[in-house]
Structures are given as C-alpha cells and as structure tokens.
Design a protein that fits this description.
By secondary structure, this protein is of the alpha/beta class. It has one domain. It contains three helices and three strands.
Length: 114
Amino acid sequence: MPHRIAYMPLNTYPEAAPDAAILAAVGFAAALECGLHVTNFAVDVPTTASPIGGFFINVEGMARAAEERSMADCARLQALVQGAGGAKAGRVRHEAKGDDGGGFGGVSNRGSDL
C-alpha cells in the first residue's frame, strides 16, 4: 500500500481553528491510515509608520497583542495536535510557523516538529 500523507494548515489569525474541527481531522486521517502533517501559522504584524496613529489608538499595542494571542494559539494547537496524534495512534508531524525576526509581516518561520 502506498504511503499517504494528509496536510492540515492551521491559521491562528484572525481566529484560531476550532478544537473540534482539528480533532475531527486528526481522527479522519487516522481512519484513512495515512500520516498527517500539520503546520500552524502565527501572525507577525509589521511596525506601523503612522506619525499620529499612536495618539488616538494604541496601534502598536494592538498589533503586539494580536501577535501574542496568535503565538499562544500556536502553542495551544501544537499541544492539541500532539495529544490527538498519540491518542489516535496515527503518524502526526507538526510544524509551527511564527516570528523569526524577519520583520516582513505576515508569516515567518519558527520551527518545531513532532
């Protein structure tokens, strides 16, 4: 039988995927007897250049809070996938993508494998 691998990307911004959907996907991959590669993504919000943006709204604080929430969701989803992977006795590989200091905004690498 050929070696099959399913891929499940998980974004954490603006909202993380629901736990129930992730657990269902892990269970589905296990039922199909295929490996599962999971990558979750954290947001990296670039620094704002607005000279008056900070007077009315704390844009930098909002951006940092969104980044921190996204990274916390990455850690939570990693633990969820790792726990489900062991429980389903499937082959699960996990990779996290987050801030590596690249500073370009969007998504950058922060490696972590299961």
